[in-house]
Design brief:
The protein is an alpha/beta fold. 36% of the residues lie in helices and 21% in strands. It has helices spanning 49-65, 106-111, 113-124, 133-143, 145-152, 161-168, 177-180, 195-201, 238-245, 303-311, 319-327, 366-391, 407-417, 428-441, 448-453, 466-483; strands at 5-11, 15-21, 27-34, 46-47, 71-78, 83-87, 97-98, 156-160, 174-176, 210-212, 220-221, 230-237, 254-258, 262-269, 280-287, 290-299, 336-338, 356-358, 397-400, 421-423. The strands form six sheets. Strands 3-2-1-5-12-11 form a six-stranded mixed beta sheet, sandwiched between helices.
Length: 488
């Protein structure tokens, strides 16, 4: 062993995490910075781009200054579909980061008409939903005066957060194939942006970043607060990083990352999947110009739902205490929760849906509502696992993310899917992007080597028998069908 380290920069929805990882994918040091999310109007979700940049550079500076060994390269993952606009000449942000949960583009997508939306789905493989980047970019180009002025001056760039960070930190105005596949502006198998989709959404291709491999020599990141530049050898969406970090690098095992939302991915192989069933075909990673594909489904409100129950309803001080409250109740009684603060994602795709708490009576307790919220998350994940299983055999469900520290959730999840749940390291997103960067720098020989290094914990086995699970499964389907229509 040479003792060389890899820096992971994990830029998520509500925090930035930086981590130094050794050649065995073991964390050596880490630090975190919070980034605030605001809701200035109903359906809008945004945050300050300068704050994100400061969090990234500050977290990296702290670790690089105290690194116990040489840092060979860096991997950067980011929050996916979120977008912003900035000046090409100075890097100055012109807009906040419009977060993936944001729904302001719904009207623009409606204006495409049924035929236009069908055209977008046929070309991209994705539902025409405001979750994806295309509608957000079109909205900024249409309604933001600062963006319009910079465009008129020929001084505009628009992109996802990774492309902003890469541009500002010296690695060039670029994104990767996994990110492009999440925008509604690229088609499966395309090397770059799709001309048909750019025209449909009214997005000039010259405003967008170049599309690169996920892994390889991607430039150098540098900042005045750092000891020196660091080679960038991996760049991808956070969920694809977690897919690698969970060791799910070939068809079979499925990963679920529990954070603000829950995102479930399964590798399918070298050909773009055409699954139907409400799942998303996505690029897992591109290496040497060759794509590995995956199926993806998201629950948009998981940790966000639990936070809301704490901050707005005052059920507990924080989600950790909410878990304690939930564990005190043997059941949720008749209480059911649909976690849909930001609409319903896969496989339902109902952006107009709203969160619902149902089945309350005078005897309902805070603990029952808390438990019902955890149950609601678990059964929404079960929707996605079931849809993946209809496409290909499903092995273990490997779970990671902050919410997996709550033991009740793991048990409820095993009961909902009727199979064991295998915990992996909670920080598998940062571990995963470091692992991909290690492949890019030559510390690891291939993506396949990552799987052998990932440690899987003791499985949590289902306690609910199959007959009872099927009854509850049908009850949940009916509830979701009815409750998701209440926001229309």
């Amino acid at each position: 062993m040479s003792g060389q380290l890899t820096l992971a920069i994990d830029q998520g929805t509500t925090q930035v995490k930086a981590m130094l990882v050794d050649e065995q994918l073991k964390p050596v040091a880490e630090t975190r910075r919070e980034t605030r999310v605001s809701h200035p109007q109903p359906g809008w979700v945004e945050k300050d781009a300068a704050e994100v940049l400061e969090a990234v550079t500050g977290a990296a500076a702290e670790l690089l200054a105290g690194a116990p060994g040489p840092v060979r390269s860096c991997g950067l993952d980011h929050e996916g579909e979120s977008v912003l606009a900035w000046r090409a000449s100075t890097g100055e942000p012109l807009t906040p980061v419009v977060v993936w949960q944001d729904k302001r583009a719904a009207d623009i997508l409606d204006q495409l008409g049924e035929e236009g939306r069908a055209q977008a789905t046929a070309a991209s493989g994705l539902p025409c939903d405001p979750y994806f980047s295309a509608g957000k970019v079109a909205w900024l180009l249409t309604y933001d005066a600062g963006v319009a002025a910079a465009r008129q001056e020929g001084d505009l760039r628009v992109g996802t957060v990774d492309s902003f960070l890469s541009d500002r930190l010296g690695a060039g105005f670029a994104t990767d194939a996994s990110t492009a596949s999440r925008t509604l502006l690229a088609a499966p198998g395309d090397a770059g942006w799709n001309a048909e989709l750019l025209e449909l959404f009214g997005v000039p291709g010259e405003l967008l970043p170049a599309v690169s491999d996920t892994v390889g020599e991607l430039g150098e990141l540098s900042h005045p607060s750092w000891p020196g530049p660091v080679a960038l050898t991996a760049r991808c969406v956070d969920q694809q990083a977690a897919l690698a970090g969970s060791g799910c690098v070939a068809p079979g095992p499925v990963k679920a990352t529990y954070g603000t939302g829950v995102f479930v991915l399964a590798v399918t192989g070298p050909q773009p999947p055409s699954p139907g069933s409400g799942l998303l075909p996505t690029v897992a990673w591109r290496i040497d110009g060759r794509d590995t594909f995956a199926l993806d489904g998201g629950v948009f409100s998981a940790g966000a739902m639990l936070e809301w129950l704490c901050t707005e309803l005052g059920l507990a001080a924080d989600p950790e205490q909410l878990g304690v409250l939930a564990r005190e109740e043997p059941s949720s009684g008749e209480v059911m929760v649909l976690p849909a603060l930001a609409g319903l994602g896969a496989p339902w795709w109902r952006p107009e849906a709203r969160a619902v708490i149902a089945g309350l009576s005078g005897q309902s307790s805070r603990g029952q509502i808390a438990r019902a919220a955890f149950e609601g998350i678990a059964w929404r994940v079960a929707d996605i696992v079931e849809a993946i299983e209809a496409f290909q055999p499903v092995g273990a469900l490997r779970v990671d993310g902050g919410l997996t520290r709550e033991p009740l959730l793991a048990q409820l999840q095993a009961d909902a899917i009727g199979r064991p749940v295998d915990p992996v390291q909670a920080d598998s997103t940062a571990i995963g992007v470091a692992a991909l960067a290690a492949v890019g720098s030559g510390l690891l020989g291939s993506v396949e080597e990552i799987g052998a290094l990932v440690q899987v914990g003791e499985p949590v086995r289902p306690a609910l028998d199959e007959a009872a699970r099927e009854v509850e499964r049908e009850r949940r389907r009916t509830f979701t069908e009815i409750a998701s229509g209440l926001g229309r």
